[in-house]
Write a structure and sequence with these properties.
It is a single chain. This protein is α/β, with parallel strands linked by helices and about 350 residues long. Among the domains are: about 1-50, lambda repressor-like DNA-binding domains (434 Repressor (Amino-terminal Domain), Orthogonal Bundle); about 160-290 and about 325-330, Response regulator (Rossmann fold). The chain has helices at about 5-10, 15-25, 30-45, 50-55, 75-90, 100-110, 130-135, 160-175, 190-200, 220-230, 245-255, 290-300, and strands spanning about 60-65, 90-95, 120, 140-145, 155, 180, 210-215, 240, 265-270, 285, 325. The strands form 3 sheets. The protein has a 5-stranded parallel β-sheet, sandwiched between helices. A 4-stranded parallel β-sheet has the order 7-6-8-9. The mean pLDDT is about 85.
């Protein structure tokens, strides 16, 4: 026997209209009521006829997600947050990776009209705003994450500059003076903001060493390469990598070369991916609630009037503030050797 929306409403002790609003991800449903409805619908194995829903509401109840990549702990955490928020609202996800290619990102976005109700896009490519605006379909609501900006869509960012400034200040305050920075990709918005924060913080301390940068690519391999260079050549007091994956690669290279962290050289990262707390020594980093970034981006998208949001509501696009997490990898020994 097919379970109907009226059956869900009866068991959840709400109206059928409330069930419809909750499962369609619309506003004006209390979160505890929405959670109860989703739970009851799951227990009763209620399966709405999506084709009929799409015809009657002109909505697919599907959200598109276009990311630069799907590999790594950062994107795994981001998708976890988006997926959790979507499931709470009975929404489906259509996920695409552009593999770091702006052209593939454009192709993915051109395919969204008619297939999704809205789209979440992580677009950290510098200088791509005009090209991105040209392919964002005006009829498809969009929220951009970690993007330099766009007049065509809501933008939600992490305060990368402030986070990198705070980490560099921390390393300076505990006594490190020669601080090397392993950069991210040169055309990446996040990477450039973190480099800018490092540079500005370094300039605040008169006896700090000169700027010291190494090329990186936001992956373990480039961090490992930087660590090998530091292990065999001139050695800084501390290495600040623009993300945790490079910091972990650097840490492995230094340890493999026989250097002690932090006794011989300190290491710090950015993001606080789950692995950061389990390596030895545990990694000092800037904590970004990555899952919350994804969930909040979806919530912002659902506030769009085209998705049932209130056109008069104030949309909070305040950047997420990273928090300093001090662990064993950045301590300053009383006397440094070597």
């Amino acid at each position: 026997m097919n379970v109907t929306i009226k059956d869900v409403a009866r068991v959840a002790e709400v109206s059928a209209a409330t069930v419809s609003r909750a499962l369609n991800g619309r506003q004006y449903v209390a979160e505890e009521v929405r959670a109860r409805i989703v739970r009851v619908a799951s227990e009763l194995r209620y399966s709405p006829h999506h084709a009929a829903r799409a015809l009657s509401s002109r909505r697919t109840h599907t959200i598109g997600v276009v990311l630069p990549d799907l590999h790594g702990e950062f994107f795994s955490e981001l998708m976890r947050g988006i997926d959790h928020a979507a499931r709470e609202r009975g929404l489906h996800l259509l996920v695409s990776s552009c593999h770091g290619s702006l052209a593939e990102q454009r192709d993915a976005l051109r395919a969204t009209p008619g297939r999704v109700d809205g789209v979440l896009v992580m677009s950290p490519f510098l200088g791509s705003e005009e090209a991105l605006d040209q392919v964002l379909a005006p009829e498809v609501p969009a929220v951009l994450m970690n993007c330099a900006g766009s007049p065509r869509a809501t933008v939600l960012n992490v305060d990368n500059y402030g986070g990198a400034h705070a980490m560099t200040r921390h390393l300076l305050e505990v006594g490190h003076r020669r601080i090397a920075f392993v950069c991210g990709p040169a055309d990446n918005f996040d990477a450039c903001e973190r480099l800018r924060g490092y540079r500005d913080a370094l300039a605040t301390v008169a006896d700090a060493g000169p700027e010291w940068t190494m090329a990186g690519a936001f992956d373990e391999a480039s961090g490992y390469a930087a660590g090998e260079t530091f292990a065999t050549g001139q050695r800084p007091d501390a290495v600040f990598a623009a993300n945790d994956m490079m910091a972990l690669g650097c840490l492995f290279a230094l340890r493999r070369a026989g250097l002690r962290v932090p006794e011989d050289i300190a290491v710090a990262g950015f993001d606080d991916v789950p692995m950061a707390r389990y390596v030895n020594p545990a990694l000092t980093t800037m904590r970004v609630d990555i899952a919350s970034l994804g969930a909040r981006a979806l919530q912002l998208l659902l506030q769009h009037p085209g998705l049932g949001g209130d056109a008069a509501a104030v949309v909070d696009t305040t950047a997420l503030v990273p928090h300093l997490v001090v662990r064993d990898s950045s301590a300053m020994p009383e006397r440094r050797t070597g």
